[in-house]
């Protein structure tokens, strides 16, 4: 593709001409996200200000003209020409597209013809459509020009602005008749497909940078997409097909799931450090600069040393007299009714009274690997004095928990163990990573399983085999990675060859208390009467979410993928009777597609054509384009009627 585009780039160097995913204003008419070659001028510094875009637009404003109109679009706009766009208000174009500036129609046709000659002999699979953003200041108000050809066919299209009118004024039957006449067909051979979008809550921030996403006023968006085949723009709320769509921002400040996301984020970073150390040696990683914690510009950086001292002091004070709740879970009580309540409580006070788990909640907030290791050694050094006997849940079988129990009871090699641990960053990080992995898995599988609306998820994730295998698999991965180097998860192992060393049996590090209740005792929802035998109405939705985020078919493959692209969208069919009250209201936008029915493929004009109408109150295009539309609209609109 680069070879095909290079001659175009060489001939028109001042324009932005590149292969990319189609912009939102192209997707509005194609109804699909695909690779296209986009052509436009680009503002050097992106701005959402219509005034800024307008200044640039004046420099490139040229005469426009276009003959032929295989596509005729009806775009009706809200009152426009405001000096600024408030980012918290809904908009149809993406923020990044604010830098897109249109070019003259003469230049657009020139570029399109040149590109067409370059691709005319390509096989269909190698040909990519070109879309050119046009300045709509001329008669006919062209907005987009598109062209595509290959060795088998040629196609072209144009998007124009036809003015403003009330939604009730749109006569679908008349539009169908016009299209049928244009194609030399009878009206009954025209296929009509209408779709629309309802915005229920929140706003889409899918085009923002990461910092803006995490600080956005809304943590995502909830929308309904509807579709029907009938000659009307009024939603047939009884018969239309409805999709429930949700956009979430992973790591958004308002998300209660950050209690778990902090751990996942930190584990990802620790894992990457261990991988680098295994590949190139411990000295290859700068511990002072490698990031551990989940960062956000609006978050206050915690004083982790102070938090650790407080934990040690609290542990010394309560020793074994603390009130340990059932299953060790401190964020679920008899009054907990929703997952949000549980996760919010987890954000404030953690999920467990287990000392090792509480320690992880501090270590995961370390700014660097150096700080994490220093805090770990500080905690172990204090524990080795024997002043405290930290509580550790019987199910916590991590190496670090065993080390803490042994050190708290006195050990002749304590100082040497700590010294060796300090000199082996991979071993220290591995010990912490194992704790973080098991604690995060425990929170995900056990805490969520105690809540009513996660019954369906709990039914899968609380399976003994699934849970056990998942934890063991992660533990084995860590061990395989670390054992291959010059270090191990067992900090005592390096002392086994010395004259004064003690080789310890892992299973002797702690004694099970037969009176202690384990988390397994609390995995059953029915046992505690949290759910009835009848399944919850939300379980169809839960099944789809489980498939999207957890199953092998999930598009989310790595934590790094979520860190770099925190916006995730899900779409699922939903019964329209559940949302009928919403469907009786006006939609955010409507789109109507007219084309010949399948049985009329060989009738009428011997060409394939499609006519797309978009009806919306808000601009589909970025400021540099809709400014000019607004000027035309103010001159031509009839009595200020807007859809």
TrEMBL record:
Name the UniProt record assigns to this protein:
Uncharacterized protein
């Amino acid at each position: 593709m680069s070879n095909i585009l290079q001659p175009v780039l060489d001939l028109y160097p001042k324009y932005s001409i590149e292969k990319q995913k189609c912009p939102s204003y192209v997707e509005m008419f194609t109804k699909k996200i695909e690779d296209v070659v986009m052509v436009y001028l680009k503002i050097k510094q992106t701005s959402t200000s219509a005034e800024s875009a307008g200044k640039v637009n004046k420099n490139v404003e040229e005469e426009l003209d276009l003959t032929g109109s295989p596509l005729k679009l009806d775009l009706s706009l809200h009152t426009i020409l405001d000096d600024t766009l408030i980012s918290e208000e809904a908009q149809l174009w993406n923020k990044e597209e604010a830098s897109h500036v249109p070019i003259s129609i003469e230049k657009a046709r020139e570029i399109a013809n040149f590109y067409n000659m370059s691709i005319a002999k390509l096989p269909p699979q190698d040909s990519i459509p070109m879309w050119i953003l046009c300045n709509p200041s001329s008669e006919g108000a062209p907005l987009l020009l598109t062209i595509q050809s290959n060795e088998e066919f040629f196609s072209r299209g144009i998007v124009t602005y036809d003015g403003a009118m009330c939604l009730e004024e749109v006569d679908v039957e008349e539009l169908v008749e016009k299209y049928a006449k244009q194609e030399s067909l009878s009206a009954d051979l025209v296929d009509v497909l209408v779709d629309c979008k309802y915005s229920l809550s929140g706003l889409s921030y899918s085009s923002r940078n990461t910092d803006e996403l995490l600080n956005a006023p809304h943590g995502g968006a909830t929308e309904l997409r509807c579709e029907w085949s009938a000659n009307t723009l009024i939603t047939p709320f009884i018969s239309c097909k409805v999709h429930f769509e949700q956009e979430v921002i992973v790591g958004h400040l308002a998300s209660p799931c950050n209690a778990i996301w902090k751990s996942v984020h930190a584990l990802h970073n620790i894992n990457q450090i261990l991988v680098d150390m295994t590949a190139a040696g411990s000295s290859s990683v700068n511990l002072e600069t490698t990031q551990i914690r989940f960062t956000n510009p609006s978050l206050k950086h915690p004083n982790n040393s102070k938090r650790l001292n407080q934990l040690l002091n609290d542990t010394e004070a309560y020793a074994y007299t603390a009130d340990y709740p059932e299953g060790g879970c401190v964020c679920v009580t008899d009054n907990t009714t929703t997952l949000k309540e549980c996760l919010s409580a987890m954000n404030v006070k953690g999920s467990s009274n287990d000392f090792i788990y509480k320690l992880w909640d501090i270590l995961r907030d370390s700014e660097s690997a150096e700080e994490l290791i220093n805090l770990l050694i500080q905690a172990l050094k204090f524990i080795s004095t024997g002043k405290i006997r930290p509580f550790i849940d019987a199910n916590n079988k991590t190496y670090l928990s065993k080390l803490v129990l042994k050190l708290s009871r006195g050990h002749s090699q304590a100082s040497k163990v700590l010294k060796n641990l300090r000199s082996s960053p991979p071993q220290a990080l591995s010990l912490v990573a194992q704790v973080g992995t098991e604690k995060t898995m425990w929170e995900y599988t056990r805490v969520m399983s105690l809540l009513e609306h996660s019954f369906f998820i709990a039914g899968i994730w609380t399976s003994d085999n699934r849970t056990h295998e998942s934890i063991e698999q992660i533990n084995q991965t860590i061990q395989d990675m670390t054992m291959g180097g010059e270090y191990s998860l067992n900090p005592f192992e390096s002392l086994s060859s010395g004259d004064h060393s003690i080789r310890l049996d892992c299973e002797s590090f702690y004694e099970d208390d037969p009176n202690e209740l384990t988390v397994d005792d609390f995995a059953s929802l029915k046992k505690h009467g949290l759910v009835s035998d009848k399944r919850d109405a939300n379980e169809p939705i839960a099944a789809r979410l489980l498939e999207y985020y957890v199953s092998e078919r999930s598009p989310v493959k790595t934590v790094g993928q979520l860190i770099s692209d925190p916006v995730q969208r899900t779409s699922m069919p939903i019964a329209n009777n559940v949302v009928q009250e919403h469907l009786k209201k006006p939609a955010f936008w409507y789109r109507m597609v007219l084309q010949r029915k399948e049985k009329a493929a060989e009738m009428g004009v011997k060409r394939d054509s499609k006519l797309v109408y978009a009806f919306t109150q808000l601009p589909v295009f970025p400021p540099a384009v809709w400014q000019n539309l607004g000027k035309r609209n103010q001159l031509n609109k009839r009595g200020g009627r807007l859809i």
